[in-house]
Amino acid sequence: MRREPVALEAISPELLNEVRDTIVKHIAPDRIILFGSATRREEVAPHDIDLYIVKSGLADRREAERRIEQLFEGRLFALDILVSTPEQVDRSLKAGNSFLAQEVLGKGRILYERTEQPI
Predict the structure, then answer these.
(1) Residues forming a β-bridge with 112
(2) What is the phi-psi region of residue 82: left when phi exceeds 0, alpha when psi lies from -120 to 50, beta otherwise?
(3) Which of 9, 33, 105, 108 is deepest in the core (most CB within 10 A)?
């Protein structure tokens, strides 16, 4: 899900924190993992945020992705979101999903991880 913004804003630690906090407040995920160019140390500052979000009890992955996109309408940065349940993550890893294993979990950076389960 990528929407091309008019002007791109470089991705700063402050912007990542703002995005993380907004998602945590409105979606209550189990985990948020940053992956892609924003995790690599490159000379050119990244202009997009790639997030892999894990959420328990998710009924509709696409609806969750749309809901997150709506939280950032009018943004000046590109945002790519993938949402899965813990069960979907396990199935993908068992099936040998190399993108998930290597790029997301292997090279990604955890921005948020829930420490306790909701009541």
Answers:
(1) 32
(2) beta
(3) 33
Phi, psi of 26 (to 5 degrees): -95, -25
Residues 21-38: tens digit of each pLDDT: 999 999 999 999 999 888
Every domain of the chain and the residues it spans = 13-113
Which residue in the block uniquely carries the two structure tokens 């500052």? 45
Q: Any idea of the CA torsion for 51, 54, 60, 63, to the nearest 10 degrees? A: -30
- Taking a C-beta distance cutoff of 8 angstroms, is the pair 69, 3 a contact? yes
What's the token pair of residue 11?
């991705």
> 3.30.420.270, 3.30.460.10, 1.20.1250.20, 3.40.50.12500: which CATH number matches 13-113?
3.30.460.10
pLDDT for position 78: 86
- Cα separations in angstroms, 31 against 1, 22, 41, 69, 112: 19, 13, 23, 17, 5
